[in-house]
Amino acid sequence: MITLIPLSGFLGAGKTTTMIAAAKSLEAAGRTVSVITNDQGVDLVDTAKARAALSGVGEVTGGCFCCRFEDLIGVVSELVAQRNVDTVIAEAVGSCTDLQATVVRPLRELYGSRFVVSPLTTVVEPLRYKAFSGGWERGESDSELSYLFDRQLAEADVLALNKIDITPPDLIPATVQELTRRYPHAIVAPYSARTGEGLARLLKAWNGPLSIDRDVDVDYDRYAAAEAELAWLNRVYEVTGTETDFVPDTWIHQVLGALSELCAADGVTVGHAKVSLRTSEGTVNASVTAAGATPSLDGTMGRPATRGQAVFNVRVACPPEIIEAMIDRSVAVADRSNGVVSEVVEGTAFRPSYPRPVHRLRPALVGGTDDHR
């Protein structure tokens, strides 16, 4: 039997970093692990990051697991055949919810002879939780994104409170207390995927008993409206020094710094903005998960390069044409500062379509017909 560990969580929560850290820890304990990334788009920075760290990596693109359910099964089957794995960790796209009904229950019902499906884990970033939950505590009506975020937490068996290494210390116990009060059915596990602190607590929760099967109501019109607030941009640039080599670390940091400032100035909510710059000297990755925040570099190259290819994955709450213009302006800022010329190779910006899951099983209907297609 193969253990399948499903991960959920809002954009920028650290699902991929969690998945990589957990896979390494499980392999150190003797398991053979593969991982699966998921996104509405293609050219995924997260997939490249996972492949740089792990042996067995698959991806499901062009839609979430619920709408690409058979693709998920196909990728799992390929990974099992290639490496004879005993464990697969699969992270759903960060704008997805209703995974209990559309992924977890169908896996258990239709493929229970092949998979042991672990408790559904939602990765939570403390500062994002504080931003969304402030309105709940004040009794304000939910925005559509806030509603989506709440539904992701409400359906979780395990709430994985990530980034405790960079969270103000007094915020961690307060957030644990609030999550426990609002979602008493879930195990709350604070940890840092980056440093490994508390990771053993999360792995233990995955081996714990499953929660009682609960029916979490999801208003699909609100869910779709939340996804429609987000622009999805995937774009690839060729980056070339004009007169001399450039420092990739500096260029990528300035691009995301300029984008972060533009989003803050226009009041645009950032889900995540990720860039991977690949050169003959190596690869440097950077990300930002909040408007106005300083970009975070995932490792540094420290050496100049003549040319490189930059892959952008940006998810923000604005029209697609606005984020395209913001990216153009941000790249131009970094190009001027670094003596670089950047040209678009390919890319697109779009809004996700209405979610239409292949299966949707409520607890009372497990074993019966789907109630939503």
Q: What is the first-to-last residue Cα distance?
A: 29 Å
String of helices and strands:
EHEHEHEHEEHHEHEHHEHEEEEHE
Radius of gyration: 20 Å
For the sheet with most strands, the description reads: 8 strands, parallel
Rough outline: globular
**Number of distinct beta strands:** 14
Mean pLDDT: 93
The secondary-structure class comes to alpha/beta
- What's the tally of helices? 11
Q: How much of the sequence is in beta strands?
A: 15-25%
- How much helix is in the residues? 25-40%
| pLDDT < 50 runs, ≥5 residues | 365-373
Describe the structure.
This protein has 373 residues and is α/β, with parallel strands linked by helices. The protein is built from eleven helices and 14 strands. Strands 1, 2, 3, 4, 5, 6, 7 and 8 form an eight-stranded parallel beta sheet that branches. Strand 7, helix 7 (171-182) and strand 8 form a beta-alpha-beta unit. Helix 6 (144-154) crosses helix 9 and helix 10 (248-266) crosses helix 11 (320-338).
